[in-house]
Each structure stands twice: as structure tokens, then as C-alpha cells.
Design a protein that fits this description.
Layout: H1 12-73, H2 78-109, H3 114-123
Helix pairs in contact: 1-2
């Protein structure tokens, strides 16, 4: 609505509907802002989950490259290989756990069905030990 140029010339009876309409428009805009904030929050959670997953996969690729190409450039004793394998296993355990936690948080707060998402992830081997 376009309010008149000079509100001083309007009577109280003319101002009441104008004020009511303006308040309704403000409420509608507030609801739009609230909805947009929810959308932004959901997208930020999804982005954080995906970035965590990318970080995990990048780490796994680097570990696999070290295993594949490291032995050609450097010969390790059996004891050194054993220590390296233990370190790698420890490195892989934490990111996997972290991604599982992020996935659970994403499911809980991401706005979609947790059982459906967990079932899809379990089919693809992404979440282990979840009985939803």
C-alpha cells in the first residue's frame, strides 16, 4: 500500500485501517525473515556436514596414497610398517566417528526424516551401528 503523502491531513478513522494494514505487512515480512533464517541454518548445517565428509575423504585418499606410493620410495622395516599401520588406523577412526556424529546432527536438525536418511546411509555403508 502507498500511504498518503501527508498523514497529518488524515482523520483517526482513516489512520486506523492504514495502521492495521501496515502492521499486517510487518508481521508478514517478519515471518518471511524467520523462514529465510531457518533455510539458511539448514543450508549451513548441510554445508558443514558435507565439508566434514570431504575432509574425511581427502584424508583417506592421502593415507592410501602414502600406503601405495610410500613403500616404493622408502623401505620400512616390519616394525616400522606395523607402527605406521597403527597410526593410520587411529587417524581413520576419528574422522569416521566425527562424520557419523555430523550426520546424526544433520539428520536431527536438517529437516528431513531421520529414519529414511539413516536407512539410505546404512545401505551405502556410511553409518555403522545405527539401528533406526
Amino acid at each position: 500500500m502507498n500511504p498518503p503523502a501527508d498523514l497529518d491531513d488524515l482523520s483517526p478513522e482513516q489512520l486506523r485501517p492504514l495502521a492495521t494494514q501496515l502492521l499486517a505487512e510487518v508481521r508478514a515480512k517478519d515471518q518471511e525473515v524467520t523462514e529465510k533464517r531457518r533455510e539458511v541454518d539448514a543450508l549451513e548445517r548441510e554445508l558443514h556436514y558435507r565439508q566434514t565428509r570431504i575432509d574425511q575423504l581427502t584424508h583417506e585418499i592421502s593415507v592410501l596414497r602414502r600406503q601405495q606410493f610410500g613403500s616404493r620410495s622408502e623401505q620400512l622395516s616390519n616394525e616400522q610398517m606395523s607402527l605406521l599401520d597403527e597410526a593410520i588406523d587411529g587417524d581413520l577412526t576419528m574422522p569416521r566417528f566425527h562424520v557419523q556424529q555430523e550426520f546424526a546432527n544433520f539428520c536431527l536438525y536438517g529437516g528431513f526424516n531421520v529414519r529414511e536418511a539413516s536407512a539410505k546411509a546404512a545401505v551405502h555403508g556410511r553409518v555403522q551401528g545405527r539401528g533406526h
